[in-house]
Protein backbone atom coordinates (compact mmCIF):
# COMPACT_ATOMS: atom_id res chain seq x y z
CA UNK A 1 0.00 0.00 0.00
CA UNK A 2 1.48 3.36 -1.04
CA UNK A 3 1.52 5.72 1.91
CA UNK A 4 -0.49 8.89 1.34
CA UNK A 5 -2.55 11.09 3.59
CA UNK A 6 -5.56 12.52 1.81
CA UNK A 7 -7.96 14.17 4.22
CA UNK A 8 -10.00 16.03 1.56
CA UNK A 9 -13.60 16.48 2.63
CA UNK A 10 -12.84 15.86 6.32
CA UNK A 11 -13.14 18.55 8.98
CA UNK A 12 -10.70 18.76 11.89
CA UNK A 13 -11.35 20.66 15.13
CA UNK A 14 -8.13 21.46 17.01
CA UNK A 15 -8.47 22.87 20.53
CA UNK A 16 -5.87 25.44 21.64
CA UNK A 17 -4.61 26.09 18.14
CA UNK A 18 -3.74 29.77 17.91
CA UNK A 19 -0.12 28.93 18.79
CA UNK A 20 2.50 26.21 19.17
CA UNK A 21 1.70 22.53 18.59
CA UNK A 22 -2.02 23.08 17.92
CA UNK A 23 -1.29 25.58 15.16
CA UNK A 24 1.38 23.26 13.71
CA UNK A 25 -1.12 20.38 13.64
CA UNK A 26 -3.78 22.57 12.00
CA UNK A 27 -1.31 23.60 9.29
CA UNK A 28 -0.23 20.00 8.55
CA UNK A 29 -3.83 18.69 8.46
CA UNK A 30 -4.79 21.54 6.11
CA UNK A 31 -1.84 20.61 3.85
CA UNK A 32 -3.30 17.07 3.76
CA UNK A 33 -6.59 18.58 2.54
CA UNK A 34 -8.68 18.75 5.74
CA UNK A 35 -10.87 21.74 6.52
CA UNK A 36 -9.80 23.07 9.90
CA UNK A 37 -11.43 24.78 12.87
CA UNK A 38 -8.95 26.66 15.03
CA UNK A 39 -9.73 27.55 18.65
CA UNK A 40 -8.59 29.36 21.74
CA UNK A 41 -10.19 31.43 24.52
CA UNK A 42 -9.39 34.83 22.92
CA UNK A 43 -11.27 36.53 20.07
CA UNK A 44 -8.65 38.80 18.51
CA UNK A 45 -8.20 39.85 14.90
CA UNK A 46 -4.94 37.92 14.75
CA UNK A 47 -6.71 34.70 15.84
CA UNK A 48 -9.05 34.91 12.83
CA UNK A 49 -6.12 35.97 10.62
CA UNK A 50 -4.39 32.65 11.37
CA UNK A 51 -7.37 30.78 9.92
CA UNK A 52 -7.47 33.10 6.88
CA UNK A 53 -3.77 32.49 6.25
CA UNK A 54 -4.22 28.69 6.36
CA UNK A 55 -7.14 28.97 3.91
CA UNK A 56 -5.11 31.19 1.56
CA UNK A 57 -2.03 28.95 1.61
CA UNK A 58 -3.74 25.55 1.32
CA UNK A 59 -7.12 26.27 -0.28
CA UNK A 60 -9.10 24.46 2.45
CA UNK A 61 -11.89 26.01 4.53
CA UNK A 62 -10.50 27.36 7.79
CA UNK A 63 -12.36 29.02 10.65
CA UNK A 64 -11.49 30.27 14.12
CA UNK A 65 -14.02 29.72 16.93
CA UNK A 66 -13.52 31.23 20.37
CA UNK A 67 -14.27 28.84 23.26
CA UNK A 68 -12.75 28.57 26.73
CA UNK A 69 -11.59 24.98 27.28
CA UNK A 70 -11.68 25.45 31.07
CA UNK A 71 -15.49 25.46 30.83
CA UNK A 72 -17.31 22.23 30.01
CA UNK A 73 -20.29 23.92 28.32
CA UNK A 74 -17.99 25.95 26.02
CA UNK A 75 -16.04 22.78 25.09
CA UNK A 76 -19.30 21.12 24.05
CA UNK A 77 -20.51 24.26 22.21
CA UNK A 78 -17.24 24.44 20.22
CA UNK A 79 -17.94 21.06 18.64
CA UNK A 80 -21.63 21.89 18.05
CA UNK A 81 -20.69 25.24 16.47
CA UNK A 82 -18.15 23.52 14.21
CA UNK A 83 -21.14 21.56 12.81
CA UNK A 84 -18.92 18.71 11.56
CA UNK A 85 -16.09 17.01 13.44
CA UNK A 86 -14.47 14.08 11.63
CA UNK A 87 -11.11 14.66 13.32
CA UNK A 88 -10.87 15.87 16.92
CA UNK A 89 -7.51 17.04 18.24
CA UNK A 90 -7.55 17.72 21.99
CA UNK A 91 -4.47 19.90 22.36
CA UNK A 92 -5.26 22.89 24.64
CA UNK A 93 -2.99 22.90 27.65
CA UNK A 94 -1.39 25.02 30.36
CA UNK A 95 1.33 24.36 32.93
CA UNK A 96 2.22 25.47 36.47
CA UNK A 97 5.29 24.42 38.43
CA UNK A 98 5.28 24.21 42.27
CA UNK A 99 5.67 21.64 45.04
CA UNK A 100 2.44 19.93 46.14
CA UNK A 101 2.05 21.81 49.47
CA UNK A 102 2.48 25.18 47.71
CA UNK A 103 0.53 24.30 44.55
CA UNK A 104 -2.37 26.82 44.29
CA UNK A 105 -5.70 24.93 44.29
CA UNK A 106 -7.09 27.18 41.54
CA UNK A 107 -4.11 26.26 39.31
CA UNK A 108 -4.75 22.57 39.98
CA UNK A 109 -8.41 23.01 38.98
CA UNK A 110 -7.54 25.00 35.84
CA UNK A 111 -4.93 22.48 34.65
CA UNK A 112 -7.25 19.51 35.20
CA UNK A 113 -10.09 21.37 33.44
CA UNK A 114 -8.11 22.55 30.39
CA UNK A 115 -5.66 19.65 29.96
CA UNK A 116 -8.02 16.77 30.81
CA UNK A 117 -11.74 17.48 31.33
CA UNK A 118 -12.00 19.50 28.09
CA UNK A 119 -11.13 16.34 26.14
CA UNK A 120 -13.96 14.44 27.85
CA UNK A 121 -16.48 17.16 26.92
CA UNK A 122 -15.36 17.56 23.28
CA UNK A 123 -15.18 13.79 22.76
CA UNK A 124 -18.67 13.32 24.22
CA UNK A 125 -20.13 15.60 21.52
CA UNK A 126 -17.81 14.57 18.67
CA UNK A 127 -18.28 10.78 18.88
CA UNK A 128 -21.98 10.80 17.85
CA UNK A 129 -21.03 13.06 14.88
CA UNK A 130 -18.26 10.64 13.85
CA UNK A 131 -20.66 7.69 14.16
CA UNK A 132 -23.17 9.43 11.94
CA UNK A 133 -20.44 10.24 9.38
CA UNK A 134 -19.17 6.62 9.54
CA UNK A 135 -15.55 7.64 10.14
CA UNK A 136 -13.58 9.43 12.83
CA UNK A 137 -10.21 10.13 14.39
CA UNK A 138 -9.48 11.36 17.93
CA UNK A 139 -5.91 12.44 18.65
CA UNK A 140 -5.16 13.62 22.19
CA UNK A 141 -1.96 15.53 22.87
CA UNK A 142 -0.49 14.29 26.15
CA UNK A 143 3.24 14.48 26.93
CA UNK A 144 6.23 12.37 27.94
CA UNK A 145 4.74 13.39 31.30
CA UNK A 146 1.71 11.25 30.43
CA UNK A 147 3.99 8.22 30.82
CA UNK A 148 6.59 9.36 33.36
CA UNK A 149 6.69 11.91 36.18
CA UNK A 150 8.88 14.77 37.40
CA UNK A 151 8.61 16.69 40.65
CA UNK A 152 6.75 20.03 40.90
CA UNK A 153 4.34 19.33 38.03
CA UNK A 154 1.66 17.38 39.93
CA UNK A 155 -1.42 18.75 38.17
CA UNK A 156 0.10 18.56 34.69
CA UNK A 157 1.28 14.98 35.24
CA UNK A 158 -2.05 13.90 36.72
CA UNK A 159 -3.88 15.45 33.75
CA UNK A 160 -1.54 13.96 31.14
CA UNK A 161 -1.66 10.47 32.69
CA UNK A 162 -5.45 10.94 32.76
CA UNK A 163 -5.63 11.77 29.08
CA UNK A 164 -3.67 8.62 28.19
CA UNK A 165 -6.32 6.66 30.11
CA UNK A 166 -9.24 8.54 28.55
CA UNK A 167 -7.81 7.76 25.10
CA UNK A 168 -7.70 4.02 25.86
CA UNK A 169 -11.35 4.04 26.95
CA UNK A 170 -12.34 6.06 23.86
CA UNK A 171 -10.54 3.49 21.70
CA UNK A 172 -12.30 0.55 23.39
CA UNK A 173 -15.75 2.16 23.12
CA UNK A 174 -15.20 2.67 19.36
CA UNK A 175 -13.09 -0.43 18.63
CA UNK A 176 -15.60 -2.08 16.28
CA UNK A 177 -16.28 1.13 14.36
CA UNK A 178 -14.17 3.00 11.75
CA UNK A 179 -13.08 5.38 14.49
CA UNK A 180 -9.70 5.43 16.21
CA UNK A 181 -8.38 7.24 19.29
CA UNK A 182 -4.70 7.71 20.08
CA UNK A 183 -2.44 9.86 22.21
CA UNK A 184 0.72 11.62 21.08
CA UNK A 185 3.26 12.05 23.87
CA UNK A 186 5.72 14.80 22.87
CA UNK A 187 9.00 15.43 24.63
CA UNK A 188 10.20 19.04 24.64
CA UNK A 189 8.95 21.09 21.69
CA UNK A 190 10.09 24.73 21.56
CA UNK A 191 6.72 26.53 21.69
CA UNK A 192 5.45 29.57 23.66
CA UNK A 193 4.50 27.21 26.55
CA UNK A 194 8.10 26.00 26.83
CA UNK A 195 9.58 29.47 26.16
CA UNK A 196 7.57 30.81 29.11
CA UNK A 197 9.24 28.30 31.46
CA UNK A 198 12.78 29.39 30.57
CA UNK A 199 12.99 32.80 32.41
CA UNK A 200 11.65 31.36 35.70
CA UNK A 201 14.03 28.40 35.56
CA UNK A 202 16.95 30.76 34.75
CA UNK A 203 16.06 32.87 37.78
CA UNK A 204 15.41 30.00 40.16
CA UNK A 205 18.63 28.13 39.44
CA UNK A 206 20.74 31.18 38.48
CA UNK A 207 21.49 29.67 35.06
CA UNK A 208 21.96 31.07 31.57
CA UNK A 209 19.32 30.43 28.89
CA UNK A 210 21.70 28.00 27.15
CA UNK A 211 22.26 26.07 30.42
CA UNK A 212 18.51 25.80 31.05
CA UNK A 213 17.93 24.46 27.52
CA UNK A 214 20.88 22.06 27.57
CA UNK A 215 21.09 20.98 31.22
CA UNK A 216 17.46 21.10 32.31
CA UNK A 217 15.14 20.74 29.33
CA UNK A 218 17.12 18.60 26.93
CA UNK A 219 18.94 16.75 29.72
CA UNK A 220 16.21 14.08 29.61
CA UNK A 221 15.84 14.15 25.82
CA UNK A 222 18.61 11.85 24.51
CA UNK A 223 18.41 13.23 20.94
CA UNK A 224 19.51 16.61 22.45
CA UNK A 225 17.13 18.31 20.04
CA UNK A 226 13.72 19.86 20.52
CA UNK A 227 10.93 18.09 18.61
CA UNK A 228 9.15 20.40 16.15
CA UNK A 229 5.53 21.39 15.69
CA UNK A 230 5.76 20.10 12.10
CA UNK A 231 6.69 16.65 13.46
CA UNK A 232 3.64 16.76 15.78
CA UNK A 233 1.51 17.71 12.77
CA UNK A 234 3.03 14.95 10.62
CA UNK A 235 2.46 12.30 13.31
CA UNK A 236 -1.16 13.49 13.66
CA UNK A 237 -1.70 13.35 9.89
CA UNK A 238 -0.32 9.79 9.87
CA UNK A 239 -2.75 8.77 12.64
CA UNK A 240 -5.57 10.16 10.49
CA UNK A 241 -4.44 8.17 7.42
CA UNK A 242 -5.81 4.83 6.20
CA UNK A 243 -2.43 3.26 7.06
CA UNK A 244 -3.20 3.91 10.74
CA UNK A 245 -6.74 2.49 10.68
CA UNK A 246 -5.77 -0.37 13.03
CA UNK A 247 -3.75 1.83 15.38
CA UNK A 248 -6.05 2.65 18.28
CA UNK A 249 -5.68 3.10 22.03
CA UNK A 250 -1.94 3.71 21.79
CA UNK A 251 0.33 6.39 23.22
CA UNK A 252 2.91 7.33 20.59
CA UNK A 253 6.05 9.00 21.95
CA UNK A 254 7.66 11.74 19.85
CA UNK A 255 10.29 12.56 22.45
CA UNK A 256 13.80 11.96 21.09
CA UNK A 257 14.11 8.85 23.30
CA UNK A 258 13.10 10.50 26.61
CA UNK A 259 10.85 7.67 27.82
CA UNK A 260 13.24 4.99 26.51
CA UNK A 261 16.01 6.54 28.61
CA UNK A 262 13.88 6.53 31.76
CA UNK A 263 13.22 2.80 31.31
CA UNK A 264 16.91 2.07 30.72
CA UNK A 265 17.98 4.02 33.80
CA UNK A 266 15.42 2.24 35.94
CA UNK A 267 16.60 -1.11 34.63
CA UNK A 268 20.24 -0.29 35.46
CA UNK A 269 19.52 0.87 39.01
CA UNK A 270 21.08 -1.47 41.59
CA UNK A 271 18.47 -0.59 44.22
CA UNK A 272 16.02 -3.30 45.22
CA UNK A 273 12.98 -1.37 44.02
CA UNK A 274 14.89 0.40 41.26
CA UNK A 275 13.59 3.79 42.23
CA UNK A 276 15.86 5.61 44.70
CA UNK A 277 18.66 7.92 43.54
CA UNK A 278 21.23 9.97 45.40
CA UNK A 279 23.14 13.03 44.19
CA UNK A 280 26.95 13.17 43.83
CA UNK A 281 26.84 16.60 45.48
CA UNK A 282 25.34 15.11 48.63
CA UNK A 283 21.80 16.25 47.89
CA UNK A 284 18.79 14.35 49.17
CA UNK A 285 17.54 11.10 47.69
CA UNK A 286 14.89 11.36 45.02
CA UNK A 287 12.51 9.02 43.24
CA UNK A 288 14.21 9.68 39.88
CA UNK A 289 17.36 11.29 38.46
CA UNK A 290 15.38 14.45 37.69
CA UNK A 291 13.88 14.64 41.17
CA UNK A 292 17.26 14.24 42.85
CA UNK A 293 18.77 16.89 40.61
CA UNK A 294 15.96 19.40 41.05
CA UNK A 295 15.68 19.03 44.82
CA UNK A 296 19.45 19.33 45.17
CA UNK A 297 19.58 22.53 43.10
CA UNK A 298 16.55 24.05 44.78
CA UNK A 299 17.80 23.45 48.34
CA UNK A 300 21.46 24.30 47.85
CA UNK A 301 21.10 26.90 45.10
CA UNK A 302 23.80 25.04 43.18
CA UNK A 303 24.81 26.37 39.80
CA UNK A 304 24.47 23.97 36.90
CA UNK A 305 28.20 23.36 36.65
CA UNK A 306 28.39 22.39 40.32
CA UNK A 307 25.37 20.11 40.14
CA UNK A 308 26.45 16.76 38.80
CA UNK A 309 24.34 14.03 37.32
CA UNK A 310 22.82 11.85 40.02
CA UNK A 311 24.05 8.36 40.81
CA UNK A 312 21.90 5.33 41.48
CA UNK A 313 21.19 5.09 45.21
CA UNK A 314 22.67 2.39 47.36
P1 LIG B 1 1.18 26.82 23.70
O1 LIG B 1 1.08 27.63 24.93
O2 LIG B 1 1.91 27.34 22.53
O3 LIG B 1 -0.27 26.39 23.22
C1 LIG B 1 -1.29 26.09 24.14
C2 LIG B 1 -2.58 26.39 23.42
O4 LIG B 1 -3.66 26.15 24.33
C3 LIG B 1 -2.66 27.85 22.98
O5 LIG B 1 -3.26 27.92 21.72
C4 LIG B 1 -3.56 28.47 24.05
O6 LIG B 1 -4.24 29.60 23.57
C5 LIG B 1 -4.49 27.31 24.31
N1 LIG B 1 -5.22 27.45 25.54
C6 LIG B 1 -4.74 27.68 26.79
N2 LIG B 1 -5.76 27.82 27.65
C7 LIG B 1 -6.91 27.66 26.93
C8 LIG B 1 -8.28 27.70 27.26
N3 LIG B 1 -8.70 27.95 28.50
N4 LIG B 1 -9.17 27.52 26.27
C9 LIG B 1 -8.76 27.30 24.98
N5 LIG B 1 -7.48 27.26 24.62
C10 LIG B 1 -6.56 27.42 25.60
O7 LIG B 1 1.76 25.40 24.15
P2 LIG B 1 2.20 24.10 23.33
O8 LIG B 1 3.56 23.79 23.79
O9 LIG B 1 1.90 24.24 21.90
O10 LIG B 1 1.24 23.03 24.01
C11 LIG B 1 0.20 22.39 23.32
C12 LIG B 1 -0.09 21.06 23.99
O11 LIG B 1 1.06 20.22 23.87
C13 LIG B 1 -0.41 21.16 25.46
O12 LIG B 1 -1.43 20.25 25.81
C14 LIG B 1 0.89 20.76 26.12
O13 LIG B 1 0.70 20.23 27.40
C15 LIG B 1 1.39 19.72 25.14
N6 LIG B 1 2.83 19.47 25.21
C16 LIG B 1 3.73 20.43 24.89
C17 LIG B 1 5.10 20.13 24.97
C18 LIG B 1 6.14 21.14 24.61
O14 LIG B 1 7.32 20.86 24.85
N7 LIG B 1 5.80 22.26 24.03
C19 LIG B 1 5.52 18.88 25.40
C20 LIG B 1 4.58 17.93 25.73
C21 LIG B 1 3.23 18.23 25.62
Overview of this structure, please?
The chain is α/β, with parallel strands linked by helices. Helix content is 46%, strand content 14%. It is built from eleven helices and nine strands. The chain has a seven-stranded parallel beta sheet with strand order 3-2-1-4-5-6-7, with helices on both faces. Residues 266-280 and 283-314 have low confidence and may be disordered. Bound molecules: nicotinamide-adenine-dinucleotide. Nicotinamide-adenine-dinucleotide binds at residues 16-22, 40-41, 68-70, 91-94, 114-115, 141, 143, 186, 188-189, 191-194. Nicotinamide-adenine-dinucleotide (NAD) binds at residues 16-22, 40-41, 68-70, 91-94, 114-115, 141, 143, 186, 188-189, 191-194.
